[in-house]
Amino acid sequence: MPDPASSDPVSGKPLLLVDVDGVISLFAFSPDAVPEGEWLHVDGILHLCSARAAQHLPRLAEHFDLVWCTGWEEKANDYLPQWLGLPGELPYLQFERNPGKARAHWKLQAIDDFAGHQRPLAWIDDSLDEACRAWAAARTGPTLLVQTDPSVGLGGAHADELRAWARAL
Ligand SMILES: [Mg+2]
To answer: How would you classify the pairing of strands 121-125 and 45-50?
Structure first.
């Protein structure tokens, strides 16, 4: 089991924090235009997992150390690496369920605890907000926020942007 407590930068690659709902598991799409993908049962709930995300995410692992940054937490490893064709489980962030008002976005404290302030990181998520943008601007290390549309998820343009950013570091 990968250690969820800290980020080990031995690979020299930047981190890619990967949200699941709205990035890999799609929602809010029109019933007339269901995206290509596969329906996975996760604890009795059906999730449409995007074929396009499955096409791009494993290739991004050549440029990034991937980390789950999702409310799925460790459950992401039970379902997704095999389906996505990743070589194995990924480290995952664990979130404080009651972070209080100190942090406006519920994922930021866990990201700081895992990655620190210096390690280059990109974060792909469908629900980034002003607090995330202010946090990214204040980080010491290079930081890229990539916002997805939850009905479309991770696509080719996002993957291109991420690769170009990683290469430019
Ligand atoms: Mg999400």
So the answer is: unpaired
pLDDT in tens, 147-160: 999 999 999 999 99
pTM for the whole structure: 0.91
Strand ranges in the chain using DSSP code E only, listed in sequence order: 15-18, 25-26, 37-42, 45-50, 65-68, 121-125, 143-147
The CA 76 to ligand 1 mean position distance, Å, reads 13
Beta bridge partners of 26: 48
CATH of domain 13-168: 3.40.50.1000
Cα of 70 from ligand 1 centre, angstroms: 7
Neighbours of ion ligand 1 (CB under 5 A): 19, 21-22, 126
Expressed in angstroms and rounded, the spacing between residue 102 Cα and the centre of ligand 1 is 21
Say how far apart CA 103 and CA 39 lie, in whole Å. Answer: 34
Domain boundaries, the chain: 13-168
Read off the pLDDT of residues 9-49 as tens digits, 9 standing for 90 and up: 667 899 999 999 999 999 999 999 999 999 999 989 999 99
Q: Which of 18, 85, 78 is nearest to 58 (CA)?
A: 85
DSSP string, 30-43: -TTSPPSEEEEEET
Strand pairing of 15-18 and 65-68?
parallel
